[in-house]
Amino acid sequence: MHRGVSPRFTGRTALFTCITIMLATTMVQGTLTTTGPYQEMDRCAVAETLQFDGQAANASVQWQVDLGPRLPGSEVSANFRQAVTENLTALDYEVSTREHQRYDMNLTNLFAKWSPNGTSSGLLVLSAHYDSRNIADQDANESNRSQPVPGANDAASGVAILLELAKYIPSMGLDHDVILFFNDAEDQDQQYTLGAEAWAENLTEEEVDSIHAFVLLDMVGDADLQLHNILPGNDTLKSRVVDLAGDLGMVNGTVDCSGAAGEDIVQYDTLVGVLDDHVHPHELGIPSIDIMDTSYGEPKPYTFGSYWHTMEDTPDKVSAESLGAVGRLVELGLRTSAFVDITEEIDTPENTTEPSESSNNTKSEEVEGSKTLATLAAVGLFSVLALILVVEWKGKP
Ligand SMILES: [Zn+2]
Q1: Distance from Cα 184 to the centre of ligand 1, integer Å
Q2: In what order do the strands lie in the sheet containing 13-23?
């Protein structure tokens, strides 16, 4: 992925808009007026049953990096797919691939589908990109900039969590299909999110309608984990993720299921526009969320941190603890139906922040929080700091 989000992202044009939007926002937490499987769930009881193993996910990060650069069309990429196919077929997933040609690249999306016995209420897509970036163009050392990155956090971390979750999904008793979508060519040169774009373009209307949600994991292994509120994204999914994170002790100023004070990990008062795989299903109206840490290493202007897109993106920067925290968050979401039946809760316009609005702000301004949100237990309001850093159009050939 890269920085920036376009108000109107189209498949034909990549809008490279680097915008940092940091603002405190009103988040809807907890109190909901509708009832459904998620609302009726005793999440803290479920939290005690979580199985996700952060150490195993960490070992997968090392395995992926040891394979070598997972460049689209490469032998390493094929080796990755073969291993994942064997692994997930053995766990009773139906594994398939689909190839696409884009910008002289042969990219291969890999899908592992689990279906319940009997009827299915629809489909949940969990995704991560498995390709690693072909150039370390942000590296401080100029001679490194033509080298492919190791991709420990930016690629392997999300994949590692999907592979670990895959072990437990078949025994969760879910009533819907789950597709683990390992997408290709997210992060090659000046081309981004090609695999997810190709997948979204080829969905039928019926398929779009059957998808409960698209949950993307990207850069989720940083030892200094800070998950941000990524634009664009579905507000109900975001609000549920904050709920789940609170249960697990990942939200500052809250107490977790055991009564302990939460850590400052899920920082959804920080909004960041990101062009990532989730924008494609989002544009189709599929509820989508990008679970992502946008600060990898030291802060560095115009980037996602000093390790991002450099040779420093190595397994030692990733931790089993962080992978475990994100893995348990998603596992809790799966087991509590947090990622399905998303449309039943209607968010009020007051608690949404459209990127098109924010991106037009070039100076700080005070934004009064809507008082109607009081009934939704939202906190008040705030300052918007929208700093437009770079705007650059990249027209596709
Ligand atoms: Zn990247």
Answers
A1: 12
A2: 13-23, 382-395, 365-367
How many Å lie between the centroid of ligand 1 and the Cα of residue 2? 6
The three-class DSSP label of residue 217 is: strand
Residue 138 · residue 147 · CB < 8 Å? no
Confidence (pTM)? 0.82
Confidence of residue 34 (pLDDT cuts 50, 70, 90): low
On the question of pLDDT at 345 being above 90, the answer is no
C-alpha 78 – ligand 1 centre gap (Å): 20
Q: How far is the CA of 258 from the centre of ligand 1 (A)?
A: 36
The stretch 25-44 carries a mean pLDDT of 67
**C-alpha distances out from residue 211 to 182, 194, 280, Å:** 17, 20, 13
CA of 374 to the centre of ligand 1 (A): 38
Domain boundaries, the chain: 2-394
CATH number of 2-394: 3.40.630.10
CA–centroid distance, 219 to ligand 1, in Å, is: 8
